[in-house]
Design brief:
The structure holds two protein chains of two kinds. By secondary structure, chain A is mainly β. Chain A has no helices and eleven strands. In chain B, 34% of the residues are buried. The mean pLDDT of chain B is 93. Classes of the chains: A mainly beta, B mainly beta.
Chain lengths: 111, 115
């Protein structure tokens, strides 16, 4: 089992819809969770981080964390074609210095 | 500086040559990481620095790869006798604490092509 798993996609959603991106992780003691957006040919850009169970909202983005189910998700409301990118989930296992990245989900927002 | 700065942005080299990649982290960030990303692939961890020390070099693919950090700031990743499989984007990232609780901030990367 991979430490951090994401569906590679592509996930296609129409413009204006909600995009839901999911990530599961294997280390139950993980404490910090991060979502990055990576446009083709560019470096990863931090979107959000979440540490506590529940939801955290920032503009059109909502991160959801469920530690019992070892699951973290990213919701993008009112999706725009400019949101089309690969979204990387990263997990910090048990307070170490490590950041374990998933392989990313490619999102396509159709105009 | 305002963000993580990497140079050069692109490097084309012949097989067998040595290359040096530079990273200037965000001012005050104690932790610095090097990753590698091959075309269409995920992020591959190479090495982690806390200050000038490298507690984890486990990701370096071979002894042709080395890295150093001086003054708790600038880091250099050196690849000796480059091979075609070294072609990738090399990403540097820094964080304020390096304990995994603070986010990583990435530079724009160095695209290395070995011909």
């Amino acid at each position: 089992q991979k430490e951090v798993e994401q569906n590679s996609g592509p996930l296609s959603v129409p413009e204006g819809a909600i995009a839901s991106l999911n990530c599961t992780y294997s280390d139950r003691g993980s404490q910090s969770f991060f979502w990055y957006r990576q446009y083709s040919g560019k470096s990863p850009e931090l979107i959000m981080f979440i540490y506590s169970n529940g939801d955290k909202e920032d503009g059109r983005f909502t991160a959801q964390l469920n530690k019992a189910s070892q699951y973290v998700s990213l919701l993008i409301r009112d999706s725009q074609p400019s949101d089309s990118a690969t979204y990387l989930c990263a997990v910090n296992p048990s307070g170490t210095y490590k950041y374990i990245f998933g392989t990313g989900t490619r999102l396509k927002v159709l105009a | 500086g305002a963000g993580v700065s990497q140079s050069p942005s692109n490097k084309v080299t012949e097989k067998g040559k040595d290359v040096e990649l530079r990273c200037d982290p965000i001012s005050g960030h104690t932790a610095l990481y090097w990753y590698r990303q091959s075309l269409g692939q995920g992020l591959e961890f190479l090495i982690y620095f806390q200050g000038n020390s490298a507690p984890d070099k486990s990701g370096l693919p071979s002894d042709r790869f080395s890295a150093e950090r001086t003054g708790g700031s600038v880091s250099t990743l050196t690849i000796q006798r480059t091979q075609q499989e070294d072609s990738a984007v090399y990403l540097c990232a820094s964080s304020s604490r390096g304990q995994g609780s603070s986010p990583l901030h990435f530079g724009n990367g160095t695209r290395l092509t070995v011909t």
